[in-house]
Amino acid sequence: MKKYIMQFLYKTIISKIFTPFLDVNIKPIELKIKQIDKCLLIAPHPDDESIGCGGILSLYPDNFKVVCLTYGNDKSIRKVEMQKAMATSNIHYQLFDLNDKKINKGFKLFKNIDISNYDIIFIPYILDQHKDHKSISLLLYKLLQVGKYKKNLKIAFYEVWSTINMPNYYVDISSVISKKLEKINSHSSQIATKNYG
Q1: What letter would DSSP give residue 103?
Q2: How many domains does the chain have?
Q3: The domain that contains 76 carries what CATH number?
Q4: Is 180 a domain residue?
Q5: Which of 126, 128, 166, 169 is most buried by a 10 A CB count?
Q6: Helix (DSSP H) and strand (DSSP E) numbers for the chain
Q7: What pLDDT, in 10s, does the model give residues 14-68?
Q8: How far is CA 173 from CA 30, 34, 40, 49, 188, in A?
């Protein structure tokens, strides 16, 4: 009986799950951004962009715009830290004023982000442990339902609090690691309690 149950499970469920999974590239390849690629990085809080993408921002500053959705827990301090971090590579950015820890309720403002001209949008990993980090995926999903975007738009997850279990792309930031650390260290109020460097 067990044998027949296993055969049934394989034919009906397991093969449908694992066959596509096995076809996916599980050996990560290097992500190369072309000079013409327009990239948008959406960060929940000031510091997430530097922790998760400080290297790629340092490699390709002219390709990126950063949108940060909330000031976090202290608007006056976090705003200055964000300015300092983005100034290290002269990156264009925009700060929204959504409520910290309630980003998931902010679609009314989020839908004003114009994604129509971007080739790649970088967002925190959907399985990140922080509620605000996860919320970005849901907000972007809603925006994709109602907004215009390029046919070949790519969505890239980046790590902040949680490791991406099986990445399919990576970016070699060894040549700009000091610039990434400079960005992270710009957020002194946040690194006072946790070392991200």
Answers
A1: G
A2: 1
A3: 3.40.50.10320
A4: yes
A5: 128
A6: 8, 7
A7: 545 555 455 555 688 899 999 999 999 999 999 999 999 999 999 999 999 999 9
A8: 11, 16, 18, 15, 22
Which residue would you say has higher pLDDT here, 21 or 145? 145
Is 186 part of a structural domain of the chain? yes
| Residue pair 128/134 in contact by the 8 Å Cβ criterion | yes
The first and second tokens of residue 16, run together, are 């449908």
Could you tell me if residue 30 is inside a domain?
Answer: no
Q: Give one word for 98, left, alpha or beta, with left for phi > 0 and alpha for psi -120 to 50.
A: beta
What φ, ψ does residue 43 adopt, rounded to 5°?
-115, 135
Domain that holds residue 55: 38-191
Residue 183 burial (10 A CB sphere; 0-12, 13-18, 19+): buried
Q: Per DSSP, what are the bridge partners of residue 66?
A: 41, 93
* CA pair distance 158, 164, nearest whole angstrom: 8
Spatial strand order of the sheet with 64-68 comes to: 92-95, 64-68, 39-43, 120-124, 154-158
Residue 103 lies in a domain: yes
The sign one gets for the Cα dihedral 119, 90, 172, 125 is negative
Phi (first) and psi of residue 148, to 5 degrees: -90, 145
